[in-house]
Amino acid sequence: MTGIGRRLAVALAAAGLTLVPAAPADADGIQAQEWALDTLHVREAWQTTKGSGITVAVLDTGVDDGHPDLKGQVLPGKDLIGFGARRGERAWARHGTAMAGIIAGHGHGASGGEGVLGVAPKARILPVRVILEDSDPARKKARSTRGGALAAGIRWAADHGADVINLSLGDDSASAHPEAAEDAAVQYALRKGAVVVASAGNGGEKGDRVSYPAAYPGVIAVTAVDRYGSRAAFSTRRWYATVCAPGVDVVIADPDKRYYEGWGTSAAAAFVSGSVALVRAAHPDLSPRQIRGLLTRTAQDVPEGGRSDDLGAGLVNPAAAIAAGNKTKPEAQQPAAAAAPNRYFGNGPGHTQSAHDDSGPSQMAFLAGLAGTALVVAAISLWRGSGPLRVPPRLRALLTGTRTR
User: Fold this and answer.
1) Where does the Peptidase S8/S53 domain lie (predicted)?
2) CATH no. for residue 124?
3) Of 199, 200, 254, nearest to 377 (Cα)?
4) Is 266 a catalytic residue?
5) Which of 19, 87, 195, 296 is deepest in the core (most CB within 10 A)?
6) Annotated catalytic residue: which of 199, 211, 266, 275?
7) Between 128 and 371, where is the model more confident?
8) Is 339 domain-assigned?
9) How confident is the model at residue 333 (pLDDT cuts 50, 70, 90)?
10) 379 versus 335: which is more confidently predicted?
């Protein structure tokens, strides 16, 4: 067990996962249900690039490098926990594998027509294990003391070639507050040219509390919408929202080689990380700030007034961002996010309160390991439709790592 692992709080909101037989993964099966790819005009972007040459770090519960939809794309990673479930155990790498599949799944089979397709199917995944799955028995034995895994993971990813850092995790509990080491790690990654993407939070029905790391300066914070473009009820509404992406009825891959549907801003962040990978592949010389600007300027379904706490600048559109990038001159030097005139890329913590500003950052320490978004798997068979599920409150906390007591 590493020093970080010993100190890391790994408690996650609990959720049960009902396993169902895998649906036939053919052209009329799994990939036909990936509505998000069409909504984001991903296939149009693929006419330019599929993300080749780009590395996306997935800071999560680990990634199954043997999954058929990811085989050959997962780089050697880093385990900053050092204990808990291991490969082959049920409580290993479920959430991280799901996020990696959304970002860079390439399907499998002779023509790649089976399994999950990600937004950037030729991008590489760099796994960094910073949290445990909710179902991991080890989390119950961990001490609720502060660990540095999240900050260390961000820095490690930036130092090991990450072009994009996906943080499908966060804490929007009553005890969440900004942590200097994590803020500094984000700024470090931005200065090294890595784009940092995080889920905005799943507190939309529980007070819309600020979520970290989404609220750190320079982070592209992502809210969730359904297939009709409407804000998902669980999606947090806050000043730091940058763009939105699909986060309802999302097809996900699992280490058990089966496929499920899930929801949450966790998935939405993964879709944006994949989109950023496409933009970076097409325009590798653009800075994180410029890429963020492309995403916001070219977003579709723009809310009234050009931006909202619900949807940010609108639904991310990688194809349009790639096209706009052709007219963007690279910055001579990448400035630190902290030195920007508007440090928070938004109204920031001093803005006038809105109806959703019922609670600000709390004073207790943010638990980095707790930040894990154990993906809420609705356990819906992909070939066997079922009616709406009644989701317990604890289950709703999962996709951004919010805690329940």
Assistant:
1) 51-314
2) 3.40.50.200
3) 254
4) yes
5) 195
6) 266
7) 128
8) no
9) low
10) 335
Range of the domain at 226: 3-329+354-383+396-400
Q: Is 347 a member of any domain?
A: no
Domain count within the chain: 1
3-state per-residue secondary structure call for the chain: CCHHHHHCCCCCCCCCCCCCCCCCCCCCCCHHHCHHHHHCCHHHHCCCCCCCCCEEEEEECCCCCCCCCCCCCECCCEECCCCCCCCCCCCCCHHHHHHHHHHHCEEECCCCCEEEECCCCCCEEEEEECCCCCCCHHHHCCCCCCCCHHHHHHHHHHHCCCCEEEECECECCCCCCCCHHHHHHHHHHHHCCCEEEEECCCCCCCCCCCCECCCCCCCEEEEEECCCCCECCCCCCCCCEEEEEECCCEEEECCCCCEEEEECHHHHHHHHHHHHHHHHHHCCCCCHHHHHHHHHHCCECCCCCCCECCCECCECCHHHHHHHHCCCCCCCCCCCHHHCCCCCCCCCCCCCCCCCCCCCCCCCCCCCHHHECCCEECCCCCCCCCCCCCCCHHHHCHHHCCCCC
Among the listed residues 65, 79, 95, 235, the single catalytic one is: 95
User: Of 106-115, 177-186, 191-200, which range is least confident?
Assistant: 106-115
pTM: 0.80
- Residues 118, 77: Cα–Cα separation, whole Å: 20
**Is residue 337 a part of any domain in this protein?**
no
Residue 219 covered by a domain: yes
